[in-house]
């Protein structure tokens, strides 16, 4: 016999944690990406962001009245 009584709930909780950790490790091996793959994906995202920023249109200056873009027949904001 052992000196201390064993708490079965703690034993079950510990066993579940170990099983979950083993399952997570197996999934990391099965579905995980290598460091090179992560780096390549990050660089591709940065490259796409720079490309998108390069194609950004400049907004008109604040306070500028751009009436050329209004649809015909829409009333003016001024009145």
Automatic annotation (TrEMBL):
UniProt-annotated stretches for the region Disordered: 1-79
Top-level taxon of origin: Bacteria
InterPro entries named among the record's database cross-references: DUF4169
Composition bias type Basic and acidic residues, residue spans: 34-59
Name by which UniProt lists this protein: DUF4169 family protein
The organism of origin for this protein: Mangrovicoccus algicola
């Amino acid at each position: 016999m052992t000196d201390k009584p064993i708490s079965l709930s703690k034993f079950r909780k510990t066993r579940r944690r170990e099983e979950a950790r083993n399952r997570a490790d197996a999934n990391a091996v099965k579905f995980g990406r290598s460091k090179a793959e992560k780096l390549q994906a990050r660089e591709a995202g940065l490259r796409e962001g720079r490309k998108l920023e390069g194609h950004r249109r400049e907004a008109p200056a604040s306070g500028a009245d751009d009436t050329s873009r209004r649809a015909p027949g829409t009333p003016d904001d001024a009145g």
